[in-house]
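pinging the channel bc i need a second pair of eyes. not urgent but kinda urgent?? the chain im working w is below, pasted from the shared doc
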Amino acid sequence: MPRDRASIPVRSGRTEFLKINAARQDWRDGYHWVLSLSWGQFAVFLVLSYLAINLAFAALYSMGGACIAEMTPGSFLQAFFFSAETLATVGYGHQYPATLYGHLISTLEIFLGMIWLAVITGLIFVRFSRPTARILYSNAIVIGQHNGRPTLMVRIANLRHTSMVEAQFRLSFSRNEWVQEGEEIRRFYPLDLFPEHMISFPAALTIRHTIDEESYLYGETAETLAKSDAYFLVSVTSIETVMAATVQSQRDYSFTDVRWGERFVDIYEELENGKLQVDYGRIHDTEPVPGAPPLRP
């Protein structure tokens, strides 16, 4: 593979990787690139591509002399608006190709315009129809006493107004470790969760990992997490019932996002009619664990 020092940025959570000497992008990667743009960037892409096409053909029309009837020869502005009308197949009628050159350029623009319109229509449809997981994660991870044992807790909320089904929750723990050869490497460990699967996920819940002798977090403190540059990655995969499609969401936490000796406040309240009220405004709120000494920070 030929070496290419040009860096390719790839972001994963809050970490950005710069790939160098990687495989060059294929022309078909443009489709993936357009779909990865934000809606604001996509709107800018639409405007710029539309202007680029019309500016290019306006230049061709203005260089063709009297190729367009009732258009001042060499007028770039008139040529631009004629190009816009041709691209949209509006055809107001007061301007039209008057020479073979004009017919060839307008025919080429109509052909390319149909392709451009079809591609843009497909991109817009895909962006609107693509299902997404509207999952809200708590701002912090808490480690405190739960059921008499130290427990790591993360709160997750479903922002959709419909229940998601077959939700799978995963939590991984990563830290730097030294191996016998004197090399520092990054290791990744899966953490057991409760619950790790829910048939129905309508609102919000707290997923928990018990820190016992079997846990990779056993014996960890704030100092050891900072020293090993630890971070956590939470993932939710579920089925969005309206679109009947699998969606996925994730959130990473640094060791600085861990709150010790706390728990999440209760956000559920049972009403007189038997319904459960969920206060999404308190998703991130925590409180010290009562009746138990805080974990050693």
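so Helices lie at 29-35, 39-62, 76-87, 100-129, 222-227. and The chain has a mean pLDDT of 86. — does that match what u expected or am i reading it wrong
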